[in-house]
Amino acid sequence: VANLTGGEVESIGPAAATSTIAGGDAGTGDGQRPPTGHGIQPALLERLQASTVQVRGLDCRAAQFGTGFVVGSDLIATGAHVVAGIKAPIVRVYGTDVPTRVVAFDPVSDLALLRPADDLGLPQALALGQTEAGSVGAVLAHDDDGGPVVLPVLVQRLIRATGEDIYGIPAGGRDALELSARIHSGHSGAPVVDGEGTVVGVLFSRLRGGGSVAYAVQSNELVALIEGLSAGARPAGPCR
């Protein structure tokens, strides 16, 4: 695992704050190009996409859009900066807009967990696991208009991202992945899956001016958030 410094990155969502990847070589956009394919079988891909949702809210200065995915019978994971300041994030499940409440919010790892207000019977939860450099897979995201997109991705390396949390406050950091993928606004919170459909990361940023260089939180950070989940809700932090 390499520690990186320098290299300004930008979160991939509206009004996104900047964060820093720590180490001497933060990536300059000169890495390998994204792969042309993801290697996921069509039937598996269809099932995986069914377990992703668009997440949105209107409580802050601008509309916020992101992506989330099912991680439990009543839990959806997304990025903390996607729901920051949002009282009741809306997700679209089975073609219906559903209000949720934030039950876990970590501005350091940039992860959040949502629970639908009603018991809908969410789609199948996605499995979480680890990966290694050189692995090829896909980012399963939703664009701002809600449409699903599948983006081939290459894991460049495993890193420790340090510097600041989503509010610009100095923080201890998070285990992360440096990726080659052509990601865009609205993709924050999307699962990064390997060729077997296992979620290995959660997308949170891209390198400013870095072409196809992107970053995801490693799945072990999400596992820790789920395992530490309490019975009550934890409101999302303030708008950024």
UniProtKB/TrEMBL annotation:
Q: Which GO terms describe its molecular function?
A: serine-type endopeptidase activity
Q: SUPFAM superfamilies, from UniProt?
A: Trypsin-like serine proteases
InterPro entries according to UniProt? Peptidase_S1_PA, Peptidase_S1_PA_chymotrypsin, Peptidase_S1C
Q: Which Gene3D superfamilies match?
A: Trypsin-like serine proteases
Q: Which GO terms describe its biological process?
A: proteolysis
The record's annotation in Pfam families points to: Trypsin_2
Q: Where is this region: Disordered?
A: 15-40
Output this protein's name. Answer: Serine protease
